[in-house]
């Protein structure tokens, strides 16, 4: 589910569920957190690039087929707990961490990218947070988007569920670089190598300070989303989750 390759002090972590549009199930969450842990403890690794296999999607979000046998509210809580643990692992990773987004990044998949230090996107890719169109609250998305862009872009993405293409994402600050698809991997490799030249201790200290508010806000947003879901469930207003909705 996560393939690991180390090349010239750069670790490439690849989500390998192309038939499922690289949707996040429990195994993928756990493997990604474990991969980050190994990379953090390996002194020979100076930077990490998170990428995904296939052309269909960088990541289509949560795997809604998982936990399908559970009540929708319970399943949503489990997915949210897994996602929060993964996002915090990304935000707390002490070394340079880049996202190579080769295809659409949707919902939780877009959150993975935004939790990295830099996002490099293919010029044909796009991102979206469609939860609002499914009747789902997504304050966790808002917590990750807000440090990167202005309020009106946050509103369009979270409250309207609008899709954002790569040029617009670059112009709004949602991503850091845009490259032709064929140049995405070389561009990420060069950028990671540049990051790898920086002092590891200084980088980690800066990152811990820079991400302090995001970590706190993300945890609070997860708690808010859980409370909102519980309220809707007890009020008989819980949304219906379908395996084909992403």
From TrEMBL:
Q: Which domain of life is it from?
A: Bacteria
SUPFAM superfamilies the UniProt entry points to? ClpP/crotonase
Q: Mention one GO molecular function.
A: catalytic activity
| A GO biological-process term | fatty acid beta-oxidation
Q: Which Gene3D superfamilies match?
A: 2-enoyl-CoA Hydratase, Chain A, domain 1 (3.90.226.10)
Q: Which InterPro entries match?
A: ClpP/crotonase-like_dom_sf, Enoyl-CoA_hydra/iso
Protein name per UniProt: Enoyl-CoA hydratase
């Amino acid at each position: 589910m996560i393939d690991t390759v180390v090349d010239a002090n750069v670790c490439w972590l690849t989500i390998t569920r192309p038939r499922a549009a690289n949707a996040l199930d429990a195994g993928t969450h756990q493997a990604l957190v474990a991969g980050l842990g190994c990379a953090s403890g390996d002194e020979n690794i100076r930077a990490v690039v998170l990428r995904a296999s296939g052309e269909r999607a960088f990541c289509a979000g949560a795997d809604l087929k998982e936990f399908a046998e559970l009540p929708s509210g319970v399943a949503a809580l489990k997915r949210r707990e897994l996602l929060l643990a993964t996002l915090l692992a990304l935000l707390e990773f002490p070394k340079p961490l880049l996202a190579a987004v080769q295809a659409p990044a949707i919902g939780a998949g877009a959150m993975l990218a935004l939790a990295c230090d830099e996002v490099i996107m293919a010029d044909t890719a796009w991102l979206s947070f469609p939860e609002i169109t499914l009747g789902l609250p997504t304050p966790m998305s808002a917590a990750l988007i807000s440090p990167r862009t202005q309020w009106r872009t946050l509103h369009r993405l979270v409250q309207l569920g609008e899709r954002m293409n790569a040029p617009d994402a670059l112009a709004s600050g949602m991503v850091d670089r845009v490259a032709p698809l064929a140049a995405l991997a070389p561009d990420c490799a060069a950028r990671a190598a540049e990051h790898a030249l920086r002092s590891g201790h200084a980088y980690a200290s800066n990152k811990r300070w820079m991400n302090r508010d995001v970590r706190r806000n993300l945890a609070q947003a997860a708690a808010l989303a859980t409370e909102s879901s519980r309220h809707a469930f007890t009020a008989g207003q819980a949304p219906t989750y379908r395996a084909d909705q992403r």
